[in-house]
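Key idea: predict the complex, not the pieces.
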Amino acid sequence: MDIRLAGVTVDFAAHGVRALDDVELSIAEGEQVALLGPSGAGKSTLLRIILGAIQPVAGEVRVSGLDPFGGSRDVTRIRRATGMVRQRDDLVRGLTARTNILIGHTHGWRPGDWWHVLRGRVPHRHLQRLHTLAVRHDIAQLLSTRIENLSGGQRQRVALVRALLGKPRLLLADEATSGLDPARAAEALAHLRDADAATLIVTTHDLTVARQFPRVVAVRDGRIVFDGPELPEEAVADIYGGRPAKVNS
Amino acid sequence: MSSSTASETSRITADRDPRPTPPPVRHVPKRSLRYMLLAGCVAAVVWSVWGTHIGLASLIEGREGAARLISGLFPPDLGGSLLSRVGTAVAQTVQISIASLVLGAIMGLPLAVLMAANVNAPGWLSGTARSIATGLRGVPELLWGLLFVATVGLGPAAGVYAISLHAAGLLAKLCSEQLEAVDPAPVEAMRLTGAGRTATALLAIFPQARANIASQLLYQWECNIRSSVVIGFVGAGGIGQALGIAMKLFRYQEMATLLIAVLVLVIAVDRISRAFRGRLGAASHMTNRTLIRQLISWSRR
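Result:
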């Protein structure tokens, strides 16, 4: 999916904060982009705009020609073609890992699927792919475990499998590797990059992660301050305002 | 974004100072206003006490009647035939409480789902659900009881209808608050997958709130037991009806036995309900906000 943002401005009126300021960004289909910036720079807001979760006060957003704010049909089409992994724990407590993965793909469920999934079974069309992904991400043994009994890293992997199960055409990862140990983070990043998703956007405040991507878009105070293939050192100083940037060794 | 709104907001944004605006200053009432409020509260209390003639004098005045009633209660009648009738009345009270809980839940839970703000039901639907729930709980059980005794006749069926209508209104309000108190992150995550309102409500909101809702239902069962005793006085069946008859016929010893049965029943139900609720562990998941709201709601009953 290709993405185009033109003059996008977002205000959080309740907090008196401008989260994004006149952002211009184009991402072609199949591109893999790292959105780099310190906390509060506007990276997550940018992802949420693409999915129509936050409405900008000005500007235009198009995702494969669809307008996320143009009506429920467009936004639903965008969301159903997208997989998202977030830093924040957003799995449903009280349900198993398997159910959590499956309820991320309710579109196309037949009436019988509801009963099937709530009883802990997997609809036939998801069976093979769920098994493959669960083995690849080392959660095959955890599928019947309730979410609240999993560690932070295990939950993050469950969220990753949930995002990948539907073969998304757009994959958004919001600081998705931050809860993982370095080895797992590298592995998860590799899986994200190898996923069948046509377009990948990863937000991070970690320079090491960003430098693994062919294109880096740096954000600071709601503005894009760098957009290019290789991030120069002087741009790093500008992004972090003189503060030391996080670099994983 | 509609085109007119977009152009309007763009213009507003262009004119707006890009610097963050300071948060609005909270309005603090002046001291004199606080004193006026306090004086108003004191006046309301004095007016209420004076108007209802409560006080030591009225209690002293009724001492002879109380002594006659209390002495009449002893010894309680423990005759075999009465105990058998009491047993039947207790069983009927439990039947009324369970049947009215089920009916109340069937009516109240869908209303709760429609009322919960995070379910995002269409405005007209949630507004209608809210009005129905307010209407149902706004009419006291006793009044519902009188209406149903007049329409379906004396007996436990009238009690079940009366209690279930009031319970539906209460459950709708309290359970909608439980649904609203769930962690919003999984709900948003579910919406961002393109899931519809029904799927989000059933798969992301309800599973998070189910322990607290089950706890709420158990508490409502306790309330239904107490309510069925009260509305029995207007002929809606159960132990309340037996108590009302004994009172009208001045059979105080029989009344004493029935009062003991009520006490035992209420304590037993309270214990059972508390044991179940403890197993659910619902209270530990409750936020302080919900707990305070619940206490206020219960105190208003």
